Amino acid sequence: MFQGSMVALATPMHADGSLDWPALDRLLEFHVESGTDAIVAVGTTGESATLDFDEHCEAIAHVVRTIDGRLPVIAGTGANSTREAIALTRCAKEAGADACLLVAPYYNKPTQEGLYLHHKAIAEAVDIPQILYNVPGRTAVDILPETVERLAAVPNIVGIKEATGSNERTAELVERVGSRLDLFSGEDANGLAFMLAGGHGVISVTANVAPRLMSEMCRAVREGDAERAREINRQLDGLHSALFLEANPIPVKWALQQMGMMEEGIRLPLTPLSAPFHAPVLDAMRQAGIEV
């Protein structure tokens, strides 16, 4: 259903933390023009954890209206409360999103049965394509492959964003559910290896800053040109690392500020990028051919 370079879109904010709608529109046009394959709105990189419920729904609706069918829009609607995740997913469906991305419930550390029932309940409550999001480093819980396989039997669960960074996990998912679910890397650093192993795309932080190169790399894999994909990825290697020198989305928002795409707006408890990391991020941007 979905494939290629899907940007985990940063949410522009003014210096006072209010949402910057004109900057959001600029970012969306930038991605349409740069060949991005899909927009993932209000996920982790979009600071979903710091937006209130109404802002979250409004941002999704704004992205859907602005994109106006030119690209698929995948809305981040996960929460650690099943009821809240259902409510956010309903908002996204009503706004016209093409699919939803649902992070594993964070902080409360459910069992595998709890994870299964949580995602099953959302899928049964809202008739929209849904993508699981497994990121144990942030949630403190791991959706194990056998649970993913159970969830693959739920009709409107269509994919998983896998962010363990494990090649072994990738291979197991390809074997268990690769013919039934779309498989997306949630780790830019292993996105190329993930796709070469049978994955369908990357939900990418790097694509915020270098959307054309990310799109070209993913396209090269799909066309069977692994050497070209590796060549492009070498240009992006610096960004894959530098954009995680502090917690995402701190570095990527700073990089976008240097590109003139947004103001210096980020919400507490996140803070602007620390000064010692400015030079490494700039170096990585230049390596990728980005003028700053």
Automatic annotation (TrEMBL):
Catalytic reaction list: L-aspartate 4-semialdehyde + pyruvate = (2S,4S)-4-hydroxy-2,3,4,5-tetrahydrodipicolinate + H2O + H(+)
Record-level GO BP terms: diaminopimelate biosynthetic process; lysine biosynthetic process via diaminopimelate
EC number: 4.3.3.7
Site (L-lysine inhibitor binding): A49, N80, E84, Y106
Metabolic or biological pathway: Amino-acid biosynthesis; L-lysine biosynthesis via DAP pathway; (S)-tetrahydrodipicolinate from L-aspartate: step 3/4
GO cellular component: cytosol
Domain of life: Bacteria
Residues flagged as site, Part of a proton relay during catalysis: T44, Y107
Binding site for pyruvate: T45, I203
InterPro entries from the UniProt entry: Aldolase_TIM, DapA, DapA-like, Schiff_base-form_aldolases_AS, Schiff_base-form_aldolases_CS
PROSITE patterns, per the entry: DHDPS_1, DHDPS_2
Keyword Lyase among record annotations: yes
Protein family membership: Belongs to the DapA family.
Protein name, entry field: 4-hydroxy-tetrahydrodipicolinate synthase
Species this chain originates from: Thioalkalivibrio halophilus
Name of the gene this protein is made from: dapA
